[in-house]
From TrEMBL:
Pfam short name (any one): FA_desaturase
Spans traversing the lipid bilayer: 47-67, 73-94, 213-239, 299-320
Location within or outside the cell: Membrane
Source species: Mucilaginibacter litoreus
Taxonomy of the source species: Bacteria, Pseudomonadati, Bacteroidota, Sphingobacteriia, Sphingobacteriales
Keyword list, A-Z: Fatty acid biosynthesis, Fatty acid metabolism, Iron, Lipid biosynthesis, Lipid metabolism, Membrane, Oxidoreductase, Transmembrane, Transmembrane helix
Family, similarity comment: Belongs to the fatty acid desaturase type 2 family.
Record's protein name: Fatty acid desaturase
InterPro entries in alphabetical order: Acyl-CoA_DS, FA_desaturase_dom
EC number: 1.14.19.-
Length: 337
């Protein structure tokens, strides 16, 4: 069986039926799967999806206290910039273009560490990297928009964790896919105990250090008002980012537009808002998934690419792939600039 067919833990409702058609589970089935996989009493191997949502739950009090005690015109603006633009762009820079697609390379571990921790830590790399773009809009796609909003929104728990019964050879392939991220992984024996590449104790320590650093930094810059503002904004982003693939694949419908969307192998679309605030020109990305730049046309501002380009300019990034010239040559008649 091909590696991508069994590397992920299949939900109880399955990926496809006997006719190889996508299984569209009911909301009840989705929620049953969700809460089953968060149950640490049932199995310690559920720790990573539980940990992922624990972070979200821990951000909720920050948001509530911010809204009740620290809301003002300036904190609202700062929250918008941090939660919508900075967190979103960092997700594209780190999780998407580097961890998942290796679109660029760092000079050394120092710059990789700095980039990884540029924002409040929310999403575990393992959940994002291993499952990403395995079978876009096909049965087995962890966030197949054709199966509905909840199917996508709860995918990090229901569909994206790795299988718990991988052979040592297959687990070695998981380690290979994760090695460039800098996350120190479990041995195969530890994987059999915890059901994950990430080690829970190292993950928890990294989380505590990251949040402690950023709370102190925000407090020194603007007191508790700024700290609660930005941690609350991170909580909004943590929930909002889980809606992206559903919208980025047109809610499972065919909404691609001539002259705007050029990749027709799936239902991905270029959207103005995610593109401008986070560099997520999603159809362009599917066209050239390993490109460090996805904003090709003049109006397609790509803040993630701007960061990578600046990092290259100061020597922190030593290599990147940029397919803008190829895009113009293949799809547009205008002269490349």
């Amino acid at each position: 069986m091909p590696f991508l067919d069994h590397v992920l833990q299949q939900p109880l409702y399955g990926w496809k039926d006997e006719n190889n058609a996508l299984v569209t589970p009911s909301n009840r089935q989705i929620f049953r799967e969700f809460f089953s996989r968060l149950n640490l009493v049932r199995s310690r191997k559920n720790w990573l999806p539980f940990f992922s949502w624990l972070k979200v739950a821990c951000l909720v009090p920050f948001l509530i206290i911010f809204l009740l005690n620290y809301t003002s015109w300036w904190t609202a603006i700062v929250a918008f910039i941090y939660g919508m633009i900075i967190m979103g762009t960092h997700g594209t820079i780190w999780h998407h273009r580097y961890c998942t697609h290796g679109a660029y390379k760092f000079r050394n571990k120092f710059w990789r560490f700095i980039t990884q921790n540029l924002t409040i830590n929310v999403i575990p790399e393992e959940i994002y990297v291993i499952s990403h773009h395995a079978k876009s809009d096909q049965p087995g796609d962890p966030y197949n928009a054709q199966a509905g909003f909840l199917y996508c929104f709860l995918a990090d728990v229901n569909h994206q964790p790795i299988a718990k019964n991988l052979s040592e050879n297959d687990y070695s392939r998981v380690k290979y896919l994760m090695r460039h991220t800098g996350i120190r992984g479990n041995s195969y024996k530890q994987y059999q105990q915890w059901g994950s590449y990430a080690n829970p104790w190292r993950a928890i320590l990294s989380w505590i250090l990251n949040w402690s650093f950023w709370y102190l930094a925000f407090y020194l810059l603007g007191g508790h008002a700024l700290a609660f503002c930005l941690f609350g904004a991170a909580g909004v982003w943590a929930v909002g980012v889980r809606t992206f693939n559903y919208d980025g694949h047109a809610k499972g419908k065919d909404k691609q537009r001539e002259g705007i969307d050029f990749h027709h192998e799936d239902k991905s679309i270029n959207q103005l808002w995610p593109g401008l605030v986070a560099g997520e020109w999603h159809n362009n990305h599917h066209l050239y998934p390993k490109s460090a730049r996805s904003g090709f046309k003049p109006y397609q501002l790509d803040l993630a690419w701007c960061f990578i380009w600046i990092m290259s300019g100061i020597g922190a990034v030593t290599h990147y792939r940029d397919y803008k010239k190829e895009f113009y040559k293949k799809y547009l008649s205008e002269k490349f600039e």
